[in-house]
Amino acid sequence: MRPAAGFVLLGVSLFMLLGFFNADLPQSAVVKLLALLVGVGIPGAAGGTLLLQHFGRKNRLRGSRAQLIRQTQEAELLRLAGERGGRLTVVEVVQELALTHGDAESLLRSLVVRGYSEVEVTDTGLLVYTFPDVQLLDGKATARGVLDD
Asked: Which of 81, 115, 117, 131 is exposed most, by the fewest CB atoms within 10 A?
């Protein structure tokens, strides 16, 4: 509804602008400026505002969608880490999550930067991403209160 109303208001504004240029107004410059503002400026500004609100919301939704996709990928990656003993390689992530090599690597690196994982290197040079918290999940059954003896 907003885009239609925005385009209608812009059309009215253009129509009024044409009428303003075709009119022979003998009034002073102040009256002409005021008529131009009321007849052209207000509808044009309102139409432009409606269109900006509509199209700006779509851009925000795209950003939210991308953020949701990234969060889902991170959750799936952590689930996979739990299945693999808290240790993953880029190739495993690519295989299991159907990501490109670059996307998998970027996702793993972002978790390293945020402190969720660490990088280890094998003797052959393979990078292994370890998830210490995931590796310690088996011990949660023995958890007790912080102040307990």
From this structure: 115
Helix runs in the chain, H state only:
2-22, 29-36, 42-83, 90-97, 101-113, 132-135
DSSP class of residue 130 equals E
Please, which residues have CB within 8 angstroms of residue 21's CB and are 6 or more apart in sequence?
A: none
Render pLDDT for 93-125 as a digit per residue (tens, 0 to 9): 999 999 999 999 999 999 999 999 999 999 999
| Residue 114 DSSP class | T
Cα 103–chain centre separation: 16
Calpha distance 76→103 (Å, rounded): 14
Residue 143 φ/ψ region, left for φ over 0, alpha for ψ in the -120 to 50 degree band, beta for the rest: beta
Q: Model-level pTM greater than 0.85? A: no
DSSP structural state of residue 147 = T
Fold of 84-141: Arc Repressor Mutant, subunit A (1.10.10)
Question: Is the Cβ–Cβ distance between 117 and 108 less than 8 Å?
Answer: yes
Gyration radius (Cα) of the chain, Å: 30
